[in-house]
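Lab notebook, bench 4. The sequencing result for the construct came back, and we need a structural model before the next group meeting so we can plan mutations. Quick request posted to the team channel:

Model the 3D structure of this chain.
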Amino acid sequence: MKDKHGPKRQRVDGEAWAMNELQMAFEEIVQQAHNDGKRLSEKQIERVASGTVQSAGRVYYRSLMERAPPMLVEHRKQQVGFERRNLRRWRKAFDLLETIWVCCEEIGREFNNYYRPIAVHEDDYVFEAMTYLHAKALLVGSEIICLLKGGFADGALTRWRTLYENNVVAALIRQEGQELALRYLAHSRVQAWQRMAADPNTDDAAQLQAQAEHAVAMFGDDMKRRRGWASQLLGKKAPTFSDIAAKCNRYTKGGVYEYASDHIHVDHRMFDDLLATCEAQENVLLVGPSNSGMVGPLTLAATSLVESTLFLMLHKPNLDRLAMLNSLLRMSKRMHKLATGLEKRTLEAARKRMSGASLPAG
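Done. Here's the predicted structure in token form:
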């Protein structure tokens, strides 16, 4: 019997794919059965539909897996090309941020190596907390650098949010001193034991349990709660990060911190609310990297890395360390002007090239 729908139309390049070939074929089968006087029960129709999905799914799976290697080669080639162009645009700013990171890491490492024996002897809990927080800042800083080089300005800003929170905790501990530092360190043992409670039969479970129980006996049941290390200081059983920030005159409402927080959540944001689309001239549903919007994350990351190192060095200040901090502050202050200049010059050059390319040939 001739197909009254006619031959299947081939999809042309660039045309949106409706992904409805199987659906149309299935509906034709059901309709043909009806035309032939066959009555298909609902269960029969469901069985045919399920069999079609399973059979076609196996074919699609084999086809996609066979095509994956060359597809990934092409995809990775495009990513490498993008990263090369991204580096070309922002190289000076990336170099400055990495220079700051390396200097902060070397300063922190030498400070830790020199003072750790002394801190252990003196039970210096502030030193212990500060060295941990500085290491955490460096780790997050490394992640930010990778995200920026990969073309993810909004992701980098989100990681900066963690860097900001890290520095808020450091600021409060530096402000309040040894007891709060001890609470902060002990709290991690309680939280770790609570996480391990589901599987307590590990080698270090007994030691961790003893540490956790000692911390609770010393500081109370508040230590079992999130951020319980700050409960007594703030007079709250369940302090929020905003409470901690307010105690050391830091803020979480409005501004860049709130903007960075919004990116973590799934509330709707218009396309032009993203850093990565700030230079786009038309609506974009962004799903990959972009070399736009780097100025803010670069500037904030540089400032926060230096601030973290400052908190560490000011625990044992001397003229040498103050001079090193001065040099780091000079580097971080350069970043905004440098990155803004790069953004402006490269954007103008790109739009000039696009304008020239769109002119008709003479």
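Confidence is low (pLDDT under 50) at residues 1-7.
Will bring this to the meeting.
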